[in-house]
What we know:
- The structure holds 2 protein chains of 2 kinds.
- Chain A is α+β, with helices and mostly antiparallel strands.
- In chain A, 38% of the residues lie in helices and 17% in strands.
- The interface between A and B is medium-sized, with 32 and 28 residues.
Amino acid sequence: MYRYDEFDHAFVSERVEQFRDQVQRRLSGELAEDAFKPLRLMNGVYLQLHAYMLRIAIPYGTLSARQLRMLARIARTYDRGYGHFTTRQNLQFNWPKLSDIPDALADLASVEMHALQTSGNCIRNVTADHFAGAAADEIADPRPYAEILRQWSSVHPEFSFLPRKFKIAVTGADRDRAAIQVHDIGLHLKKNDKGEIGFAVYVGGGQGRTPMIAKLIRDFLPEEDLLSYTTAIVRVYNLHGRRDNKYKARIKILVHETGAEELARQVEVEFAALKDSELKLPEKDVEAIASYFALPDLAERAEGWENLARWKKADPDFARWVQQNVQPHKNPDYGMVTISLKPIGGIPGDATDAQMDAIADLAEEYAFDEIRVSHEQNLILPHVALADLEAVYRGLVAINLAEANAGLITDIIACPGLDYCALANARSIPLAQEISRRFGNAERQAEIGELKIKISGCINACGHHHVGHIGLLGVEKKGAELYQITLGGSGDEHTSIGEIIGRGFEPDRVTDAIETIVDTYLGLRLDPSEIFLATYRRVGPQPFKAALYGATAEAA
Amino acid sequence: MVDKVLTANRLTDGIAVWLDAKGRWSTSLQEALVARHNEAVEALEAIGKKSYADNEVVDVAVVEVQDTNGSLWPLRLRERIRAQGPTMEYAPGYAPADPEFIAV
């Protein structure tokens, strides 16, 4: 795991004290809100519907047990005893007092964490595959590159006031688990014929009011050129991105209006000038950073295979959990455990202080002190010996986080919605809870198979509804909530934007509509191995429209 | 004219508050001073501007309410949720908003 050097420590601590002074001046009246607002946003402090919100960065989703325990402590001390893990590998607290936030930031700094660049028109928290460094299908660990990008982008003088926010994601496997094609820059690690590491570079993806899939502008960028090429992209965007209209300010609009080919040409011109500058990555520096992310020393634990078979036979619930929530590790004696933060009827992404403490204990005892946050609002223990799975499962049962639903219909992404968010038009969480309860039966979930439901309470799409197999977008119509349904979205290596299926549904009709869609799928699929998305792509929207609105109904 | 009340978030902790008849910021919507004509709304707005300038509150807004069986009931769902908190169980010790109050 990356550890701060002296510069990092000093920098983050200085920023905490600087913000403490700003808060004190705000509370004393010396600083007016207009002057203070940009300062608080630079430190991840928003004002939401009920209170301030503090958004904390979890770079590339990687946490140590010590860091997770500190998040639990902050939840307990300065908030209402819980935190909310988001789709951007951040953690949000919903109730901190402004006067307490400097202390919370100081606590964070003591475990090498901060809230910088979790807001504002800058390069945001760099995200990555949550199985990085552990996945059996990985070409290379994306986190060293995400860390290099984090260091480069932190308070970057040229890129601290971009036309709009800017999001970068990195994946190191062919199976894209970081949704790179719906980011401003998506980097896909690959090896060329000579076995050298490089990146396929995607630009201009994003969701929100104008969803777009990123364009591939470089098939293979050598590793050493990562920063010079990224600088070139952001420089072109900074120069030509629109500043007259915030809704047209993202790089996806620039790519769309300029054309990917022309934009790539402009990037190449900038890149040519930067290629041999100080931005060129020295191999030894990459190696030094990569050494922080070395695989733990995994002892042989071959006894796990036999134990696992025996435990699965004795406990069907445990067997189901292993089947659904444990993925193959690079080392066959180990597995990657998804801790579902989606208990049936629960709030997607929420964890209490006690749950965070308990997960930190499990990570320390059984998972080499590592926890990951996924963009699907779950936590991951990336390295667990098969021989320890039963103990981890028992630990999760004790804190009500052993739901065997990773990737299933109740593993729902939902933004905070109108229950918390000042921008939202409709609620997301209660809808997710109702759908979860309706489909909570384990056998039924298993019968339905992989199905990703994603819910956003407004057009900004924090719940990633555009890339949900079933997406729900809450809108306000005549003062009431209404939900638009999209089908066929996907955020993987075959990214697609969902299509609006027809007129929206009132809140009390949405779950029935989901059930109709699911039943239609079950009747149409070729066999149980054909997942919902595959069936939808094969048959198209019409059968679903007919089931929802009648055979002759027109889409609204 | 639709009845109106003045709301904001308290500077120190961000908690939603409403201006009451004594000119104080209350954490209960039900204690809010109701403006029933334009002059009263203008008076509310003036108090809001002063409270903002005095660094007591932020995000000041006038919102529409109606008197329903003796209770103040914001017309917008957003404001009803602001008045009663999140609509689901989220933390020990904090009750969810009353579903009847939240209902359209």
